[in-house]
Amino acid sequence: MSLVYDAGHRVHVRAPGKLNLSFEVGHAGDDGYHDVASVYQAVSLFEDVWATHGEDFSIAVTGDVDVSGVPLDERNLAVRAARLVTRAVGWSGGIHLDVHKGVPVAGGMGGGSADAAAAL
Question: Are 51 and 6 in contact (CB under 8 A)?
């Protein structure tokens, strides 16, 4: 992931998509949760996220891929992540996110998770 601040008070983060090379689920523990072992590989498809101060939380999405299925409300992982981090630090304003997607939507390559990580 790379992070850049610009003169317009925007923060730009580029986050890669990923592939699961291995995923194994173990036995359930006493807490009812299963141990999980996984191996990921970053790929050369990226999500670009720009964040600016806003009065509320909002998002605009463009892409090199079909973005018609990307939610533009609280269901969006990047919006949820931005809202959570602002609460954690006591920020009372909002954040506008501009996302340019290069990772296929619903392709199993972690595009939504990359957006959320970039928003954090």
Answer: no
Residue-wise pLDDT tens digits, 58-102:
999 999 999 999 999 999 999 999 999 999 999 888 999 999 999
User: What range does the domain containing 37 cover?
Assistant: 2-119
pLDDT digits (tens, 9 = 90+) for 47-58: 999 999 988 999
Distance (Å, whole) CA 82 – CA 86 = 6
The number of beta carbons lying within 10 Å of the beta carbon of residue 111 is 28
Q: Does residue 20 contact residue 45 with C-beta atoms inside 8 Å? A: no
- Which residues, at least 6 apart from 107, have a Cβ–Cβ distance to it below 8 Å? none
pTM reported for the whole predicted model: 0.83
Six token digits for residue 32: 């009812």
